[in-house]
Amino acid sequence: MHKYLIGLAVLLVLLSAPVPAESISVTISQTSESSKPQRLASDYFKKLLEERSRNRMQVTLELAGSGASDGLLQSLAQHRSQLVLVDLAENTRWLPQLKVLQLPFLFRNRQHLYQVLDNEVGQQIFLADKPPEHIPLAVWDLGFRQLATSAPLLLPEQLLETNIATSQGNAGFSFKLANDAREQATRPDLQYTVAFGYDMLLAELTEKPPQQINHLTLSNHILSGRILVVSRSFWDSLPEDLKVIVKGAVKDATLYFRELAQQQERQSLRKLKNGFLKIHRLTPAQRRDWQTEMQSVYPQLMGNTDLQIVESILNLDSVK
Predict the structure, then answer these.
(1) CATH of domain 23-315
(2) CA proximity to 169, closest of 290, 300, 38
(3) Whole-angstrom Cα distance, residue 202 to residue 217?
(4) pTM, two decimal places
């Protein structure tokens, strides 16, 4: 009888013990072209998710082929990945509200950008017209693209005689629109350009400096970066406590990424200052001239997206 009671007590203890929650597999996919800050921040994000969930989330980091943003989104739609890091410039077509982040000369600097992303304006950008299948969680910025040219390019009117090669669709489109409008209005007989250049990240410029480029204008004219996106079906399936953990991990990994990206940019700028380029900084007046010039093409770049968000960003001017 005594042994029976002991056995019953043990059975009751086992039955009353909490059942370990089933682990959730999470795949985070990104392209093999990812920068060093992105790779380090991704590792940190994985660590945070696993530690804070006490391994209820088992995270795998997956590298896709180069230039594979469409493939990443497809893997998200097909549930092969739960989160992806995709190029900002290539994916505004399926997240049209993010077009505002690609408007040239909209942000003064990184501080202005972070002020926008980290307050209610950023929430408006992320939540507006949210498609049913994807949810943007964060922007991991690689910095702003700068103007590397064969001749000084400090004023928007000089753009008329400068051919800018760019890999950024919106930047190139806006420059072309501004060029065409001014060309038709003021110099319809212009048949050639007298200077050429590129819009590049500072890290790109230090790694692969183009030939015959002698000048660098620190224009901060367009944002380059990645969007961290989660599958809506995966997000909706998460328990509330894990959603809180994911949000906190996203915030902390984003802050870590920002530190790394800014450090990389400072290192690149130091190298460039010791190199062959003459570096120019736009004065506040010159920057206003560029912004005024580019604002004329904002409606065309934004399409049907509400321009009120642009005004909100421009009015957020506590950081000069």
Answers:
(1) 3.40.190.170
(2) 300
(3) 11
(4) 0.84
